[in-house]
Amino acid sequence: MQALVRCNQLSLWLSTHLTDLLEKLDLVDDDDDETYELPLRDYFVIQYADMLLMSNPGYWEIGCDYLSGCGAQGVGRIREILRRTRLGLESSKGVRQISDTTMSCEEGQDIEVDRAADEPLETINAVIKVAAEHGLEDERREICRVSSGTDGSV
């Protein structure tokens, strides 16, 4: 374990991925040290995901992939990432952009987005997909509600 902690001082990427591999081989003993509140692998993975998100918020999907293997703590962080992800539905004047392009949020419910702005549609689809993959139904519904304009906000 001390070697992994020292490795972390050199490179968070290295310690994260090395710990992940060693744990899969059942070579990480978290019982030796109670310094970390989480299993050592989860601690390093969460630190690495946080670093990715701080370095570039556009890496939110990659961060969610890393966090998905970190139990309840990881899912809680994914929930927060989804809540903070900008959906890109505002125009330069702060008005929701609507046109004839739609996406399916739930069966029988379509969300309209600006055809000229493919990025918001891709982001909304990605956020909904991540929420569904991790069983975050409340977040998925909220994204659908906000995206469809039924929240009453601009």
**Total number of β-strand segments?**
2
Strand coverage percent: 5-15%
Number of domains: 2
SSE pattern = HHHHHEEHH
Helix content: 55-70%
Rounded mean pLDDT score: 78
Q: Biggest sheet, open or closed, and with what strands and sense?
A: 2 strands, antiparallel
Low-confidence stretches: 91-104, 106-117
**Rg:** 19 Å
- From the N-terminal CA to the C-terminal CA, the straight-line distance is 51 Å
What oligomeric arrangement do these chains adopt?
single chain
Count up the helices. 7
Write structural notes for this entry:
- It is a single chain.
- The chain has 2 domains: 1-84, no CATH class; 87-154, no CATH class.
- The chain is mainly α and 154 residues long.
- Helix 1 (2-10) runs antiparallel to helix 2.
- The chain is elongated.
- It has helices at residues 2-10, 12-24, 40-55, 60-67, 71-84, 118-133, 137-148; strands spanning 101-106, 109-113.
- It has a two-stranded antiparallel ribbon with strand order 1-2.
- The model is unreliable at 91-104 and 106-117 (pLDDT under 50).
In short:
This protein has helices at about 1-10, 10-25, 40-55, 60-65, 70-85, 120-135, 135-150, and strands at about 100-105, 110-115. It has about 150 residues and is mainly α.
Compile the SSE list and pairings.
Elements: H1 2-10, H2 12-24, H3 40-55, H4 60-67, H5 71-84, E1 101-106, E2 109-113, H6 118-133, H7 137-148
Antiparallel strand pairs: 1-2
Key features?
7 helices; mainly alpha; 154 residues; 2 strands; two-stranded antiparallel ribbon; 2 domains; single chain
